[in-house]
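Sample entry was shown:
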Amino acid sequence: MNTLSIALIMSLVIGFIVFKMKLFEWLFKVSVKLIIGAMALFILNIVSGYLGVYIPINLFTSLFVGLLGIPGIIALGLFQFFIV
């Protein structure tokens, strides 16, 4: 094997490793946001139980709140209050 082919193979291996690391980093961030969203919805359901507003905790609502934060909680609360 010549030097060019070895360099090409090594760069592909390094690129693959970096891609995998970025993928796991992205999955970790999404998982953390999912957990934070579920906890925020749980706390919201405890506090807003007196008002009669209940937002179910599932994958969609947890990700929605985890990714959008406070505006996501407000949007889901308004949706639940006015639409459902």
